[in-house]
Amino acid sequence: MELNVKPHKLDPGNYDELTKLISGVKPNYVFNTVGLLSGSWSDLWNAHVEVPRNIARAILNVDKSIKLIHISASAASGIIGNFIKEEPVHCDYTYVRPRSDYERSKCDGERTIRELGNEGLNYVIVRPTLVYGYYNDHDEFLSLYRFVRRGLIPRVQGMVNAIYVGYLVRMLEKLAVSDEYRSAFLYATECTMYSIGDFAELMAQYLGVNGIRIPLPPRLVSPFLPSGVRSLIKYVNVQYGCESTTRVLGVVEPGIGVGVREMVDWLRRVYG
Amino acid sequence: MERALIIGLGFIATNLAKHLINEGYDVHVTYRSVRGSKALMVKDLLELGTECKAA
Question: Does A170 sit within 8 Å of B15, measured CB to CB?
Fold first, then answer.
């Protein structure tokens, strides 16, 4: 039976394999979702710079009409104030301050794609804030889930920008098909900022847990977090501009209710 | 039918693939391994792909 979804085993670090696949599939759009939250500089560089470079070069080699949608991260620019929006000149050090290995590799990867835009690459770079929803078992939410399952509901103080994955994927498709977005970069985020404690509180509600609520400032939580997540604690109370997201999607309702329910369903399915 | 190639299999990729399948795209997804939760992601995608093709 022929399906309209087909998995391919592939190392995206291998340029020849990638070129062969793109030649065979002949896609209209390529979406790069490869990313790491932590690892050595070499791991981060490979995932965030070498892989997108390979994809972009393969596209240029096969067919320049293929559009690349590269998923980066809001942290690519580093912290540049308490309100961050798209910088006037993309990843220009006059405006951005990526400091950690994660941030620098993300920004370098974006810059690589932009440079290949000069050779005719049709691309859009998307920088999502914290993404939540079904299939998310990343460390930050898995740790939270495990705490809540044990009856410990951390009330971590502080606000974050986030985006429900259902909104993000709609946005990615719209950016792919729209001729309006070409050689562009933009943040993907809901306008509503969420209290970090809301995620734990909603998890407890959906799990039916009435445990102990522990008020915690982020700096006290930090040592107990996985290293990749720990490096993002500094973004608590940093707000990202949602104008670009609204321009693409229109006004969206806060997604946290449905998104956390989906995460609980997924985490329960995988981890019990 | 428009074709989409998604590089990498994970949380966002699986949601994106499902969305694109539902929108009628021919979707191709790359993976390095299908251990742990990724096996379930692939299972869901293949099931959805079968349903959509049959519909």
Answer: no
A71-122 pLDDT tens trace: 999 999 999 899 999 999 999 999 999 999 999 999 999 999 999 999 999 9
Closest Cα of chain B to A94: distance in Å?
31
Query: What are the tens digits of pLDDT across the range A16-46?
Result: 999 999 999 999 999 999 999 889 999 999 9
- The interface pTM score, or ipTM, of the predicted complex is 0.95
| Nearest by CB: B8 against A12, A27, A133 | A12
Distance of CA A56 to the CA centre of its chain: 19
